[in-house]
């Protein structure tokens, strides 16, 4: 085999690699353009979810795909509502340090003069939207194939999902009350510097 033959074999691989890199760049550029448009992104996702549910209702099938999507979206919502640094875990670590005779450092501000720590989400808004959109598109794609139309009694899935939703949200809300954090920006934003008032 000559050098020209091996060069010819590598040329198609280089073309495929170059095309794949170009597609990835275009995909990232599109995502970057969508980043500042929060309301439009969420409205587009809501439209996709409506299309998916209309597909489920009119086709009278794919209930297991719908249930899997709902559970995944609930999991994303919980990660979105939780702080990145869970105070209950920090409290457990603090208790362990006290038992071992270590130095006690308060994980949360305990007085007015303590340092302000803003709420940092475990799952940022952008990642929440992107993961939800990808999951919804995959779910719509799955409804195109009969293999995913597993026969189930759908009312049981609906009741089970709502019970699971109620229990997890009750636990999350009690956690928010216990550790005194609000995962939403409510009210007027503070302006700093020479900003107009």
Describe this structure in words.
This protein is mainly alpha-helical and 197 residues long. The chain has a domain at 62-109 and 117-182. The protein is 66% helix and 0% strand. The protein has 6 helices and no strands. The chain is globular and about 65 Å long. The mean pLDDT is 81.
What labels would you give this structure?
single chain, 197 residues, mainly alpha, 6 helices, globular
Q: Which helices and strands occur, and which strands form pairs?
A:
Blueprint: H1 3-34, H2 38-59, H3 63-81, H4 87-99, H5 125-142, H6 154-179
Helix pairs in contact: 2-5, 3-5, 3-6
Fraction of residues in H or I helices: 55-70%
Residue share in β-strands:
under 5%
Averaged pLDDT: 81
SSE ordering: HHHHHH
Measure the end-to-end span.
Answer: 76 Å
- Sheet of most strands: none
User: Based on helices, strands and strand pairing, what is the structural class?
Assistant: mainly alpha
**How many runs of DSSP E, i.e. beta strands?**
0
Q: What is the CA-atom radius of gyration, in angstroms?
A: 24 Å
Summarize the structure.
By secondary structure, the protein is mainly alpha-helical.
């Amino acid at each position: 085999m000559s050098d020209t033959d091996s060069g010819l074999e590598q040329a198609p691989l280089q073309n495929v690699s170059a095309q794949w890199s170009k597609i990835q760049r275009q995909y990232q550029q599109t995502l970057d353009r969508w980043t500042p448009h929060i309301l439009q992104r969420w409205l587009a996702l809501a439209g996709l979810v409506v299309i998916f549910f209309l597909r489920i209702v009119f086709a009278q099938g794919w209930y297991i795909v719908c249930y899997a999507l709902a559970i995944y979206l609930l999991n994303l919502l919980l990660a979105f509502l939780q702080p990145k640094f869970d105070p209950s875990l920090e409290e457990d670590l603090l208790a362990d340090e006290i038992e071992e005779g270590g130095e006690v450092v308060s994980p949360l501000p305990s007085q007015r003069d303590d340092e302000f720590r803003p709420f940092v989400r475990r799952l940022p808004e952008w990642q929440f939207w992107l993961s939800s959109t990808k999951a919804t598109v995959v779910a719509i794609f799955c409804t195109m194939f009969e293999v995913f139309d597993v026969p189930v009694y759908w009312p049981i899935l609906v009741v089970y999902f709502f019970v699971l939703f109620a229990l997890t949200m009750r636990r999350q809300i009690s956690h928010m009350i216990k550790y005194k954090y609000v995962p939403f920006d409510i009210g007027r934003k503070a302006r700093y510097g020479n900003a107009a008032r």
